[in-house]
Amino acid sequence: MNKITNINKTILKEIYQKRPLNSKKYDYGLLLVIGGSEFYSGSPALSALAAFRSGVDMVRIMAPKRAADIIASFNPNMAAYPFGYFNRPLS
For residue 44, which of 3, 27, 35, 52 is within the disulfide window of CB 3.0 to 4.6 Å? Predict the structure, then answer.
């Protein structure tokens, strides 16, 4: 028989404990979002914002150049790169 459990603040505090003061970036995850198009940039940006709210430390977004530029302007915490960025020659 299935048992229904009411979720309350006490249960959530047990599951989602406070992070240690000495925690640093990448201790709680790095997410890569790939998406967007030349005219649509909302989905990758919203996915990245949702990931931050869920506790991910760093989100990197790969998108077409125009979308990556728009996404980078949404929030300074979002690292947006155009497709091919990591394949370019180093100078």
Answer: 35
Q: Average pLDDT of 12-23?
A: 84
Are 71 and 48 spatial neighbours (Cβ–Cβ below 8 Å)? yes
Question: How many other β-carbons are positioned within 10 Å of the β-carbon of residue 29?
Answer: 13
Q: What are the contacts of 44-48 at 24+ separation with CB within 8 A?
A: 44/71, 44/80, 45/70, 45/71, 45/74, 45/75, 45/78, 48/75, 48/78
Conformational region of residue 77, where left means phi above 0, alpha means psi within -120 to 50, and beta covers everything else: alpha
Tracing tokens 């048992």 back to the chain, one arrives at 3
State the angle between helix axes of 65-74 and 42-54 in degrees (0 to 180), rounded to the nearest 10.
40
Return d(Cα 56, Cα 2) in angstroms, integer: 32
CA angle 51, 55, 59 (to 5 degrees): 45
Give 48-73 pLDDT, tens digit per residue.
Answer: 999 999 888 899 999 999 999 999 99
